Amino acid sequence: MHFVKAKGILSSQNGMNIYRGCSHGCIYCDSRSRCYHWNHPFEDIEVKENALELLEDALKHKRKKCMIATGSMTDPYIPEEMTIGNFRKALHLIYEYGFGVTLITKSTLILRDLDILQKINQKTKCVVQMTLTTFDEELCRKIEPNVSTTQERFAALKRLRDLGIPTVVWLTPVLPFINDTAENITGILDMCIAAGVYGVICFGMGLTLREGSREYFYEQLDCRFPRLKEKYIQTYGNQYVLASPHNNSLMQLFNQKCSENGIVCDNERIFQYLQTFEEKTAARQLSLWDY
Predict the structure, then answer these.
(1) What is the pLDDT of residue 281?
(2) Rama region for 177: left / alpha / beta (φ>0; ψ in -120 to 50; rest)
(3) pTM for the whole structure
(4) Which pLDDT score, from 0 to 100, does residue 287 have?
(5) Angle 86-96/114-123 helices, nearest 10 degrees?
(6) What are phi and psi of 243, to 5 degrees?
(7) Where are the alpha helices (DSSP H) in the chain?
(8) What parts of the chain have a pLDDT lower than 50?
(9) Under a CB-based contact definition with an 8 Å cutoff, are residues 206 and 176 in contact?
(10) DSSP symbol at 265
(11) What residues contact residue 57 under an 8 Å CB cut-off, 6+ apart?
């Protein structure tokens, strides 16, 4: 872990990353790709020591309230957050200045912040997004070794449901020859149905690999799934998109099961929902007739 002074904290699309880098160890992580210009080891967490000051200044000067999004590059609930606590402080700032928030995580550390997430959701809008790739706990430990297990995330989704906080699940990636089975997709969707999620994001059954993430993925295949790397290379070569051979049948299963159970599976509609700010307790403006 190391500390840096950042020049800014919110992107043009109101995205935010308090930290940079990750220790979750997911074998398929796209954030490792060299196109993101890493100048330090991926597991060496970069802490933006002035993030809170930058965030407060940005929120103060926003002309229009909006949703603040985080987690697309680095999970806000990495283990370091337990001791540093900057993300919880950022949530308090978001609440104080009346903004909404949506975040992506694989960690049940989010349960620590249920109080402030609920307050944000009562005032404006809070949507929690959680990735689920396999309902098999043993497989989960192989492909996502340092995060909360699927069952633990499932329990967190149900807790959020009980508090009225809407949730969205990312069903991605689906790794060819590993978790691209009808049994797995059905198992994950059954969890989504039981947890009452708003929607499930899926870009097709497969994964993408770029320079940087490809090398790490293949190293992990050698360690965890002997001889499978050779099958990937023979099947896909250096393709960017590695679609499952079962993509069509699995997508049909996915769309049908979501439709039958009232789960939104149109990615565009889900992203529009995530970006739409809602203010639930705006004070009524007084007029002369109120006196």
Answers:
(1) 57
(2) left
(3) 0.93
(4) 39
(5) 20
(6) -80, 140
(7) 51-60, 81-84, 86-96, 114-123, 137-143, 150-162, 182-195, 213-224, 228-236, 247-260, 267-275
(8) 283-291
(9) yes
(10) -
(11) none
> What is the bridge-based pairing of β-strands 199-201 and 2-4?
unpaired
Degrees, nearest 5: CA angle 139-172-235: 80
Q: Is the peptide bond before 245 cis (omega within 30 degrees of 0)?
A: no
Tokens found for residue 35:
């196109």
Q: What is the pLDDT of residues 11-45, one digit of tens each?
A: 999 999 999 999 999 999 999 999 998 888 999 99
Handedness of CA 126, 70, 161, 94 (dihedral sign): negative
How far is it, in rounded angstroms, from Cα 74 to Cα 62?
24
Residue with tokens 């159970």: 261
User: What one-character DSSP code corresponds to residue 274?
Assistant: H
119: closest CA among 138, 104, 97?
97
Distances (CA, A) of 220 to 5, 181, 238, 253: 33, 21, 17, 29
Interatomic CA distance for residues 95 and 112, integer angstroms: 16
Q: What are phi and psi of 49, to 5 degrees?
A: -65, -20
- Say how far apart CA 262 and CA 15 lie, in whole Å: 29
